[in-house]
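Components:
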Amino acid sequence: EVQLVESGGGLVQPGGSLRLSCAASGFTFSNYAMNWVRQAPGKGLEWVANIVFSGEDTFYASSVEGRFTISRDNSRNMVYLQMSSLRVEDTAVYYCAKDGLKIGPYFFDYWGQGARVTVSS
Amino acid sequence: IVLTQSPGTLSLSPGETAALSCRASRTVSSNYIAWYQQKPGQAPRLLISGASNRATGVPDRFSGSGSGTDFALTISRLEPDDCAVYYCQQYIISPTFGHGTKVEV
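Structure:
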């Protein structure tokens, strides 16, 4: 059974930093790209970042480019999202999502339960 | 690519058929369209990829169709458990989602 478990969410002030983690299990982690997708309160879904299966390439939404960094550790089946220069508009539930393919971003076939990030003074 | 979903809300009775629309601002080649179901308080669940390929474990009451700029999700024989928001997503370039259609049964 595929499982994705996020951690690291919380309350942070504008301009601050936070790192989210996602522990993956139930599939061959090193064979698939991974993504972060967020959902602001009461809003729709927004893709944030993608990292290919090997970790050699990353892709970002324009709204977070230069502020967020996605990374992975294939030896630990972990994916991370380092968030810096946080803004109020980054407030959202952040989902870790497995890509359907090795590279991407494409479609997201498994999702974690989400980590809530609140940016507020 | 902007995805426009309609209607915003669909209210139907059990056993009826729901027809959800997703229109893209430009052609989505290779039918790189996915559909997701999200129930309140839950993470999204993949239903359809490649415009018409059902994901593992998805009942055949859910079917996807379309090409070019016009895509559709059809839910047959509606059940109360189908109450959710349904999102379409394109993945031909920098993934984007539609704003969702809320289905009430």
